[in-house]
Protein 1
Amino acid sequence: MVSNAIPESPEAEGAGDYSTAVPTVPELSLAAKVEGLLFVSSGAVQVANLANVLHVPAREIEAALHSLAESYRGRGIRLQRHDSRAQLTSAPELASHVERLLGLEATTHLTQAALEVLAIIAYQQPVTRPHIDSIRGVNSESVLGTLLRHGLIEEAGRSDGPGRPILYRTTPEFLRHFGLNSLSELPPLGLPPIAPAAPGANSPESGESPQEGSETG
């Protein structure tokens, strides 16, 4: 009886031995992991959330964020910080190119009144509307509504003062609008401190605001 078996040659020895070993992949650095998480996030991410996901202390996340920010210098990506949040954005120098690429309308131009209110909030946040009104001397309710609609400011709780007025602060969109990576990049004002109100005067934190001269945003 003739065997149909094909004799194995020395060269074929081990040819059917398929290895199941998985190639070793180098462990990503913490900065690389943080970068990846920020890349897939639709908005700013809390440092505490990153620390929880990666199971590391918040201080290590901060160090990783600092490393990323340094590595992005001179590149088309920036690390934007706002309070305890972080996100990746395009470099502000690319704004016009990004608008053309994505077919976006030109950046909304803000009125002088809106810029005044925004400046007060940016430098004194969190701040209430009565306090803003006391500085400007006019009712700023309409202007605040405009800034809220554009996402440049947001509510940040309520003051402990009389009437518990709403506190306002800037948003990450504010930073993008003005090409800032963080609030620390705001230019210094160099103004003298505001003197405390005299006894019996309307407090900035009270629920009353100037009524005359109300304007729109």
Protein 2
Amino acid sequence: MRIAAILLIAALAGLPLSAQTTKKPAPPRRAPAAAPKPLPKVTEPAMFECPMLLGQGVRTGRTFCDVPIGRDAASGVVIPFPPHKGPVTVTFDLHNRHTYSEELVRANRAYSKYTATVGVMYSDTTLQTRAVVQNEFRTAADLVDRISGGGGSSGLKAVAPTGSETIVVEIPEEEQSISIVGEKLLVLRVDGANAANTDTFTAPGRPIALISNVMLEYSPAPPPPPPKPAPSQKPAPRRK
């Protein structure tokens, strides 16, 4: 019996390891998780609250809104956002405002250089950024458009947009609106003696610039989940 046991141990010792142990099957490899799809973005004209509407352009068809000097968000052009997920990109064109006079243009005395500074505020009056538009006016060719609704024979208003600067601002997701307020306007004019005269305007309430073509780019917020059905209640047992 002892000899048989020794022979059995010797035989097992001579076997390869694969014959003496059983391998566990390797776990199946999991496919890597798919990256979340980016939310589709929407680009659309913005709805905004204009405290001082100048009017509609006869050539572009745009709505031009005055930007008054202000110290808080409520006094400016308020642009609310629709329900959104992620940041909102706001784009608008910023213009100077010029009072057009055909007589001054003919007399070669219409030159003006405008520099308007506006601020982009959050609803709590935190300043997000500033924007500047600067241009020179000499003739009617320097006007961006003319505004309908004037009382003269032409039916055009004297105030018109001149110069154009496209402003792009990215707003964080948590903000629900912005406001564009005026800060300062510098106007350089040259009188008949060719002497330069610069006026500075900072009084609250004075319109110093115009905006048009306000656009929003954003990802719409997903719809809320449907409400859970109320648990059914069993009728109370009747008393005998």
Protein 3
Amino acid sequence: MKVMLLKDVYNLGRAGDVKKVADGYGRNYLIPQGLAALATPGVMKQAERIRDSATQERARLNQELGAVAERISGLELPFAVKAGDTGRLYGSVTTAMIAEAIEKETEVQIDRRQVDSQPLKMLGVHSVSIRLTMDLNPEVTVVVYREGETPESAYALIAEVVVEAEVVEDFAELRAELEAEESELESQELAEAVEDEGLPGDERTAEDVQEEISDQA
């Protein structure tokens, strides 16, 4: 179904935009919440007015919340948790927990729905966006570390992952080089076989010799 947005909707569009959305999403959420309306000719005529009004409201919110964004941006939020040997948490760090931690650090009240993250279920360092407005999305750093250790242990996990990735990359490059050398060696051997077995004017190719060798085997 096609709808016209009446308000800004994160990850979908700005007020006045016409979007094609799933029927269920439109009928069960966007329209009942007053975020959108069916894109009928009558509604479409109001698009410019809605867009202008939303632009003014967005500018007001951006100015009002600019200082809040500055206070939130770059925050480091540590969470000591219980986790298994693989680093998987016994539970998770939820959006509500992150919102509460932000409020504790800054005295700024954040709704958990403004925290753009799935529940965090692994040890490590996670970047999470906080949706203040369509234009203001400051990021915080969520440090999830094992109980009894220090927050630095979570950063150590990142270093280990980087090293492992480099080892895998180096191995892949080495393997590619070896395969290329083997392919070149096979081509040389085939060329020598053609030269040794061929007669003047012989038009057999390396592929022909390879087929003969395979037949003999």
